[in-house]
Design goal:
Layout: H1 4-9, E1 14-15, E2 20-22, H2 23-41, H3 53-57, E3 63-64, E4 69-70, H4 72-91, H5 118-124, H6 133-146, E5 154-156, E6 162-171, E7 174-181
Antiparallel strand pairs: 1-4, 2-3, 2-4, 5-6, 6-7
Helix pairs in contact: 2-4, 2-6
Length: about 180
């Protein structure tokens, strides 16, 4: 089984003038794999936004040819090992939690230092919890890959309209996104 550190320490042969995988996309994927493995290594289960073996196997990267990339065979071989490791963890029984246990501080779990917003659960559905910074960052990385590298942030508002994110503010209750209506 692979460890989170082994995944982070992996190096690939660089390709140029032959097909390879996009370096940035593979690196983001490996960071996400590492975060997932860290959650398992801490004795817990990964939280929302982290990888399952099915998602790990389904990873797709843009091909490179005229710019540097990672060797396709080496990356694919590592993905096979990652999937096997995740399947091994997923096959283990889920640890039982007592209802009064504190929120786990495993990777991917909510940051409990800020009070949850009363509207957050209602907006995302019953039983939903606000995202922590790590979860948000991870999900933004995946979304950026799915959006073909776009850095544009758009927020879906409760009334169904959308707004551009224009700034971030930090305060005692967490991070606030400043928005402007989309034109």
């Amino acid at each position: 089984m692979l460890s989170a550190q082994q995944v982070l320490d992996t190096t690939f042969t660089a390709t140029k003038f032959r097909e390879g995988y996009d370096v940035e996309q593979v690196d983001i994927y490996l960071d996400d794999v590492s975060a997932t493995l860290k959650a398992y290594e801490a004795g817990g289960r990964p939280g929302p936004g982290l990888l399952t073996s099915v998602e790990a196997r389904g990873a797709r990267f843009s091909a490179t040819k005229w710019r540097e990339g990672y060797d396709v065979t080496e990356v694919d071989d590592l993905i096979d090992s990652i999937v096997g490791t995740l399947q091994s963890y997923e096959a283990r029984p889920t640890p039982a939690l007592h209802p009064t246990d504190a929120v786990s501080d495993a990777v991917g779990q909510q940051d409990t230092t800020a009070p949850p917003s009363p509207a957050a659960g209602a907006a995302a559905g019953d039983g939903a919890r606000p995202l922590g910074v790590h979860d948000l960052t991870t999900q933004l990385q995946y979304a950026r890959v799915r959006a073909n590298g776009s850095d544009r942030l758009v927020v879906l508002l409760p009334d169904g309209s959308t707004a551009h994110v224009t700034a971030l503010d930090a305060g005692p209750h967490g991070i606030t996104l400043r928005t402007a209506p989309q034109a």
